[in-house]
């Protein structure tokens, strides 16, 4: 638990009305309410480049009822509410540009139910994906969605997270069956349910998934689970051209090979991990595969993918089934983030993502690479290519504001390029504050409908204001 | 095209304001606007037991722009709008209890684009699933969702349809990537897009999927496509007990066998098809399987499922790969509807569905069967058991109102039983007017949120009023 020190003189932003709110919150939560600067600042900064924007106070909630009470008090005092899971979001989702009360849900750690026969479970929002998978270990089941960070499942639902194996298992949108949500006025609703499918009314579950705290606070999540596959096979293959790698991905998926992960590292990214991890991978566009199934089926999948890769100029196709061999093959992929940061000692990482129809992926990556090189920024490319989703990891000099400006320009051009190709401004990181400028370009008049929904559910604009859209 | 005769004296419901509306619609559409009784009555009756409730007029639209113009005129005159695809919905979705203008979209037959490399396509709302699959035949791709009827893809999106292979390929919710929607005020929006995944703002696509015309009129649908599998294997197996059949399904899915279809017919249903199709299947709960994959993998799946079935008292497990042999094995499943109607010559069919967590499926079916027998109605049971979804097909004497009352009581008890087990009042047929009474029991306070969304987008309640929820 973070420091629950009482309000310090420098906590800032307080006035008489706030004091009344804060008194009420302190009466509700005791030591689990804090206005200490250190606590506030810890909650005002994500893992990306965004400037810290601290909330006025942090409330550490332990139950849905407490969240409802906090939100109701904030509504009475017309103060913003910012939900916080693990702080690992990337697009400014947890910053508090208008102050207000951050509700830290990390204390909501209960795994409420696991239904093995039905392959589902219900958890409180603060449970992280690794905690859940550790808990599930003896059941033979697992929750596959893996955005990299050990994020909270409430936060992953709120940002519609996905990651490397979305190509096989889908995103949070596909795997959240239901939610408990505290609305802007403090009402508590349960959406969805435990049935595998339902046509009973509007799909509120998927309205709240990806709403980034702007429509309500997610306090419980019902999730789909999967049987741990009998066998996993990993493979790696280098390509002469990026187009060859992407064509391999396209044909692999068209052929119905249910690849579990298929990741692309461009030659700059390979160079980066070669240096960092002392590897000697050919400095070429490289695909990393993972196949799940029975032993025979996982092997058949690897063989089919290998044959396709060969057709498109792939070479050195290696595959492995034993865990240590799989880890060795995938090491380069796992080391990406730290390898990139090591390229510029003291550098600051900024991961941005777009997603395009896969037929445009090679073109979008190549044009973006050209832009990166011409602009003179450092930004290796890694992609969840089965979905047409790729990331730039800018490595910036924090003392050189021009470096950040250049990166912003490259990012904007990449987004507009992706949109022109029928893609989206973010495949999995969300909009937050960073990508609000692109929402209109992507969705046009539909943004007006999003705004109508937002105002219907949060007429005072108190739920995570300044995120996704202006109202 | 239906009879475009001019307004007949018996068209009814018209008044001066309507006449102004009708004049404007006639000016817009010419012969594609009709108030003829035959045309109106044809559009006021679905394929279920519901009484005919005709709209005041029918407008045959051919483009999104026309739909927008029609909706705008109806909004000006505050007249209801009821979208119509093929009229194959089951829960009263197309009836016009408050009159108004039915927009028939069956003339919107254009397949706008097929992107083979990206496995997606865009169609106008009137294209049916069979038309699309015929069109796709030479591409090696197909659209899998199969609700039985050759429904329009716009209608399937509007009702969140699914069917036998949802266990493998998901429902319309999972396979609609984006929509063009005409809103209540005539604005046209495009939701979603062609990227395989997106976190860019609220998921309006899935808000409109399953909204049954109450939030807007769907005029175009972007869909996921799949490669036609190299091999398909069908299998059938009889069980001593229903529990044995359901346990086979549970373990099959837990084992990660990606069964493409897994259908349950209870002993009454088997008896019905034995009579109708002159078969001699054991009169026992029976599972019908279909597996998709490479030849080796489809065969391995069938063998694994066969081994599981044997463990749970399955006998006579047969499987086949050649199309004629597969058709022979599945004949009983295909004949269900007509076999049931033949049980009572002149009988009227009413298909209702619920969906429960699969661990409760055997219990829910057995209690429902007991209720059917004790109440004395005719209702074989068939289930998409991989999802926990099952159907009763009541076969009713249209001249005996008591028969319908008994069926309604059985249906209500089945729904409440499913809800008590954590299930839903409809897995795939939607709410329409028939299941509105159960929405509150299922979703509680969340229905209030659905109502807020409805009123935000359709404040005058003109879009398919009297469906899903009261406002």
Can you offer a commentary on this structure?
Two copies of one chain form a homodimer. The first copy, chain A, has 471 residues and is an alpha+beta fold. Chain A folds into four domains: 9-104, Uridine Diphospho-n-acetylenolpyruvylglucosamine Reductase, domain 2; 111-227, Uridine Diphospho-n-acetylenolpyruvylglucosamine Reductase, domain 3, CATH 3.30.465.10; 231-337, Alpha-Beta Plaits (2-Layer Sandwich), CATH 3.30.70; 344-430, Alpha-Beta Plaits. Chain A is 37% helix and 21% strand. Chain A is built from 17 helices and 18 strands. The first copy, chain A, has helices at residues 16-29, 37-42, 64-76, 129-136, 153-158, 166-169, 172-175, 204-208, 242-254, 267-277, 295-311, 323-334, 336-342, 361-375, 401-420, 436-443, 446-457, and strands spanning 33-34, 57-60, 81-84, 101-104, 111-115, 120-124, 141-142, 176-182, 188-192, 217-224, 226-227, 231-239, 261-265, 286-293, 314-320, 348-355, 381-384, 389-396. In chain A, the strands form four sheets. Chain A has a seven-stranded antiparallel beta sheet with strand order 15-12-14-13-17-18-16, sandwiched between helices. A five-stranded antiparallel beta sheet of chain A has the order 5-6-10-8-9. The first copy, chain A, has a four-stranded mixed beta sheet with strand order 1-2-4-3. In chain A, α14 (361-375) runs antiparallel to α15. The radius of gyration of chain A is 23 Å and the shape is globular. At the A-B interface, β9, α8, β11, α9 and α11 of A face β9, α8, β11, α9 and α11 of B.
């Amino acid at each position: 638990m973070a420091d629950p020190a009482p309000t310090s003189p420098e906590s800032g932003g307080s006035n008489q009305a706030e004091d009344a709110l804060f008194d009420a919150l302190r009466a509700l939560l005791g030591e689990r309410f804090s206005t200490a600067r250190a606590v506030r600042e810890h909650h005002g900064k994500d893992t990306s480049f965004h400037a810290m924007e601290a909330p006025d106070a942090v409330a550490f909630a332990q139950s849905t009822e407490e969240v409802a009470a906090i939100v109701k008090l904030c509504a009475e005092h017309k103060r913003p509410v910012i939900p916080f899971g693990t702080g690992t979001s990337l697009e400014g989702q947890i910053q508090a540009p208008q102050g207000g009360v951050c509700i830290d849900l990390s204390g909501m750690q209960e795994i409420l139910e696991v239904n093995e026969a039905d392959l589902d479970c219900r958890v409180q929002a603060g449970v992280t994906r690794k905690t859940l998978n550790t808990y599930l270990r003896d059941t033979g089941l697992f929750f596959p969605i893996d955005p990299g960070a050990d994020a909270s499942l409430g936060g992953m639902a709120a940002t519609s997270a996905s990651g490397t194996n979305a190509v096989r298992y889908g995103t949070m949108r596909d795997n959240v069956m239901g939610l408990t949500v505290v609305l802007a006025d403090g009402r508590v609703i349960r959406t969805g349910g435990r049935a595998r499918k339902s046509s009973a009314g509007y799909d509120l579950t998927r309205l709240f998934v990806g709403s980034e705290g702007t429509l309500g606070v997610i306090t419980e999540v019902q999730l789909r689970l999967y049987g741990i596959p009998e066998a996993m096979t990993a493979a790696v293959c280098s390509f002469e051209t990026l187009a060859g790698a992407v064509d391999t991905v396209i044909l692999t998926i068209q052929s119905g090979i249910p690849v579990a992960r298929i990741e692309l590292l461009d030659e700059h990214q390979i160079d980066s991990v070669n240096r960092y991890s002392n590897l000697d991978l050919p400095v070429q566009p490289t695909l990393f595969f993972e196949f799940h199934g029975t032993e025979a089926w996982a092997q058949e999948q690897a063989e089919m993918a290998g044959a396709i890769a060969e057709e498109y100029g792939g070479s050195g196709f290696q595959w492995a089934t034993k865990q240590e061999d799989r880890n060795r093959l995938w090491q380069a992929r796992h080391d990406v983030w730290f390898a990139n940061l090591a390229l510029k000692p003291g550098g600051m990482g900024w991961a941005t993502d777009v997603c395009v129809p896969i037929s445009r992926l090679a073109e979008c990556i190549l044009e973006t690479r050209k832009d990166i090189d011409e602009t003179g920024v450092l930004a290796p490319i890694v992609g969840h290519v089965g979905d047409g989703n790729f990331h730039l990891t800018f490595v910036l000099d924090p003392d050189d504001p021009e470096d950040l400006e250049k990166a912003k320009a490259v990012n904007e051009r990449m987004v507009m390029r992706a949109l022109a190709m029928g893609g989206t401004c973010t495949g999995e990181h969300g909009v937050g504050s960073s990508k609000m400028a692109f929402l209109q370009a992507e969705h046009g008049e539909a943004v007006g409908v999003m705004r109508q929904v937002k105002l219907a559910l949060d007429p005072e604009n108190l739920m995570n204001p300044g995120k996704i859209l202006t109202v």
